[in-house]
Write a sequence for this structure.
């Protein structure tokens, strides 16, 4: 049996301003109408009948659960309290699988890869399966299409079944070295995808990094199921070393095998990578959204909210969101992360959040703000409920635009419908519920001396938030 493990951590800072730390690239529809996570789960249909295991950060849990729900599929969602890289993440998956699924083969995938040729992907997995069944640790090597300096490489050695014994793992090379790798025909791009028996990974990890295995084993001794999620022991996992699976196991084991894959793979690590895998017009422009281009060539132009017009541009990336615009030379987009680092160091919210923020009950869009006031458009899903809460520093005024709201304010409960409003004074205990069958839309006007999101005291919450 094959069990799919999808690692959905990471921040994708090079794809700012679309990717933010609290809404990173794996949850975005970058290559097509599906998000990258959804495309990853769709890609394994037919490979395994087992429920996939999704490993993600605590702060992304509701986004992941909602995107799985939209697909109409089931998934186990294991929450990491902190990021500790791929070796511990796979260890958690392997230990969980051994305890519940009778030692399956683990197909370990990243949630943020683009693989357009699904049949070729599935054929590579089928080719790797006999090797994994014979206790090999299989990694998938991408057939290189050019001297890429942004990827690590794997050198294939002697033939082994449908693959090759791994002769060497190589760090990201310079251009001349990368060209020599491609010319030799012996090297593949390191995809970070694996197929291996759960017990074999645990065996090899215990041999080379028993400290990681010990920390992960202790982390799983006290599990805390919570709605769609499983939480591990936070204190035990924080003690786990931060290490990649390549360093911890694959570079040390004598059981590593590389199986070639030629499926159009890209890790979409930068805007230039997205341009390469996106369909283009006759002028080489990858365009999405409301865009009007004149005398423009080989550009990536992404509009989220506004008309973007260009004149006389070449090799430029333009990305517009509701709260930020990026304009960059396509050949220098690796340095977008420098902007993100600066935003973070200056304490600006744009590195972390979009203007439109998703919550387990729906979403809100901060449409205006100024001194002592803020205006939000709030959407509450049918049947969803905001927490019972109060604020020390702000009052709120809710105006229902469409739908019906059940509002609790201190000791009274009222039904508020379209074109009606309710006032919530500072210090009042209040909550909001959508009892209807359609989304509830309302405008929230906040006023007060402090309007930060941390001015919330929660008394009850359906979603387990403190």
């Amino acid at each position: 049996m094959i069990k799919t493990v999808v690692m959905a951590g990471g921040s994708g800072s090079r794809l700012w301003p679309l990717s933010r730390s609290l809404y990173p690239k794996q949850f975005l529809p970058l290559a097509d109408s599906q998000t990258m996570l959804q495309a990853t789960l769709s890609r394994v249909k037919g490979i395994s009948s087992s429920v996939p295991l999704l490993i993600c950060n605590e702060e992304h849990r509701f986004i992941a659960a909602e995107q799985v729900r939209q697909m109409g599929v089931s998934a186990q969602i294991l929450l990491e309290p902190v990021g500790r890289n791929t070796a511990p993440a796979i260890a958690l998956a392997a230990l969980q699988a051994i305890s519940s699924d009778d030692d399956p083969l683990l197909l370990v995938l990243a949630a943020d890869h683009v693989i357009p040729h699904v049949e070729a992907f599935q054929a590579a997995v089928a080719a790797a399966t006999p090797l994994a069944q014979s206790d090999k640790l299989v990694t998938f090597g991408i057939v290189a299409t050019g001297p890429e300096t942004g990827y690590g490489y794997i050198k294939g050695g002697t033939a082994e079944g449908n693959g090759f014994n791994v002769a060497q793992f190589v760090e990201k090379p310079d251009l001349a070295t990368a060209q020599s790798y491609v010319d030799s025909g012996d090297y593949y791009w390191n995809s970070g995808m694996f197929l291996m028996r759960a017990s074999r990974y645990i065996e090899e990890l215990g041999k080379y990094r028993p400290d990681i295995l010990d920390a992960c084993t202790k982390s799983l001794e006290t599990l805390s199921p919570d709605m769609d999620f499983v939480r591990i022991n936070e204190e035990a996992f924080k003690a786990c070393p931060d290490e990649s699976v390549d360093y911890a196991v694959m570079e040390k084991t004598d059981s590593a095998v590389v199986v070639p894959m030629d499926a159009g793979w890209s890790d979409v690590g930068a805007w230039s990578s997205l341009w390469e895998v996106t369909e283009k017009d006759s002028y080489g422009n990858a365009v999405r959204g409301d865009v009007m281009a004149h005398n423009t060539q080989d550009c990536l132009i992404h509009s989220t909210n506004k008309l973007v017009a260009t004149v006389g541009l070449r090799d430029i990336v333009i990305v517009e969101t509701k709260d930020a615009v990026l304009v960059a030379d396509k050949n220098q987009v690796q340095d977008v992360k420098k902007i993100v680092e600066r935003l973070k160091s200056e304490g600006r919210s744009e590195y972390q959040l979009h203007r439109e923020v998703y919550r387990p009950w729906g979403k809100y869009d901060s449409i205006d703000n100024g001194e002592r006031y803020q205006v939000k458009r709030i959407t509450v899903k049918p049947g969803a409920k905001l927490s019972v809460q109060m604020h020390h520093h702000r009052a709120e005024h809710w105006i229902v635009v469409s739908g019906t709201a059940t509002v609790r304010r201190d000791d009274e409960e009222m039904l508020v419908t379209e074109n009606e409003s309710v006032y919530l004074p500072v210090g009042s205990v209040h909550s909001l519920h959508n009892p209807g069958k359609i989304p509830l839309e309302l405008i929230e006007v906040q006023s007060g001396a402090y309007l930060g999101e941390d001015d919330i005291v929660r008394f009850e919450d359906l979603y387990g938030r403190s």
